[in-house]
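From the shared-data thread, chain only:
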Amino acid sequence: MDAPPRHRYRSPDEDSARWDAVRLRPGDVVVSTRSKHGTTWVQAVCLHLVHGPGPLPSPLPVLAPWVDHLVEPVDELAARLAAQEHRRVLKTHTPLDGVPLVAGVTYVVAARHPLDAAVSLFHQGANLDRAALARLSGAPTPAPRTRPAGQALEDWLARWVDRDPDPREALDSLPGVAHHLRDARDRLGGPHDVVLVHYADLLADLPGQVRRLAQHLGLEASDERVDAVTATTTFAAMRARADEVAPDAGVLVDRRAFFRGGRSGDGRAAASPAVLARYDARAAELLPEDLRAWLHR
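Structure, as tokens:
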């Protein structure tokens, strides 16, 4: 049976059709996440498992590029990836129904409590140089801010919870997050190698998650290797190395601010009881019970 056609996802600064220029090969690792769900953290773990705990051969966004992002010409990105002879790690914010699914490639999908990711997204909006993003992506004008200036976090969260756009048109909305995770969960045990990673598990037991990914990828998982990779990929270590690992192509105001807090529980702490009740009701509509329980634990 032929695979269903890939869905094309587009935004002012992304286009999933750019994947057509990249030839995936067995052994590749594709990290597919929603924004602020632990993308860079998972990338760093995978890269240091491949290259060792020392300095990476080149900055993380150069070594493991964001394929969909329009800020770099796709032919240059594809040529750089083609020249990499080592095991490759690639980044996307596209759900797996918009990414080429190739035998022998591992697709790592990171999840996070949606309210926590929303809080991080709220703060990230102030750390983007929108004029630079428009210039690099070829947009005629800068994209509008994701929130009005001065809007309180609690008010922004309330609107984020209540929004009900087409999930494929608004991937960082609650329906978009649910679509991304449902699609990945439904592929577990299927013909392609998909693994889910939870942000809370990275926080609670980073060595355990480093070992789990190493074993899944068939890489060295000795105590010494796991300890060394863990030490270089803690949240504090990543923040200290922001110039090397922050996913910046010239659009972040402050690379260290990209690693703002790295906590769990910020979303429920910031939301009012009424917003929490609406969130719980919407999550029950959008996510099956088992996935919701795993996501919210």
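The CA atoms of residues 57 and 63 lie 7 Å apart.
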